[in-house]
Design goal:
Layout lengths: L24 E6 L5 E9 L5 E6 L5 E8 L8 E10 L1 H38 L1
Antiparallel strand pairs: 1-2, 2-5, 3-4
């Protein structure tokens, strides 16, 4: 503490396997204990288990003849990477924090759009 002010310093400790993960969705809800459960996932098209191709008379790979599974084109995969469980107070604090981060992201996006519009105007006059 400095100058008799009440203050606290938080030190962040990362595990050796800390690895930020890209997610583009979440699924979850309220648990029987009243906690918020969020399971984060990456939604993408699935990869086939196997693809068979015809071999052309010249020995090169020709068109596909079979894809496993057959419904590959009608499927999506939600690869669940991690999940979190939050009590009410932590969920409220995270909600507030996310709101503040979104305000900053929106300000940055607006500044980028204004800059692009200005560049468009200056290019149109030259």
């Amino acid at each position: 503490m400095s100058n008799n002010k009440q203050e606290m310093t938080f030190k962040y400790v990362f595990t050796y396997d800390y690895s930020p993960t890209y997610v583009n969705g979440a699924h979850g809800g309220i648990s029987p204990r009243g906690e918020l459960v969020m399971n984060f996932y990456l939604e993408r098209q699935p990869l086939p288990n196997s693809i068979s191709h015809q071999i052309t008379p010249t020995g090169t790979i020709g068109p596909e003849t079979e894809v496993e599974p057959e419904d590959l084109g009608r499927s999506l995969v939600r690869h669940v990477t991690t999940g979190v469980v939050l009590n009410y107070q932590t969920a409220r604090e995270l909600h507030y924090w996310l709101g503040e981060q979104l305000k900053q992201m929106e300000a940055i996006q607006q500044a980028r759009e204004e800059m692009a519009a200005e560049q468009g105007k200056s290019q149109a006059t030259h």
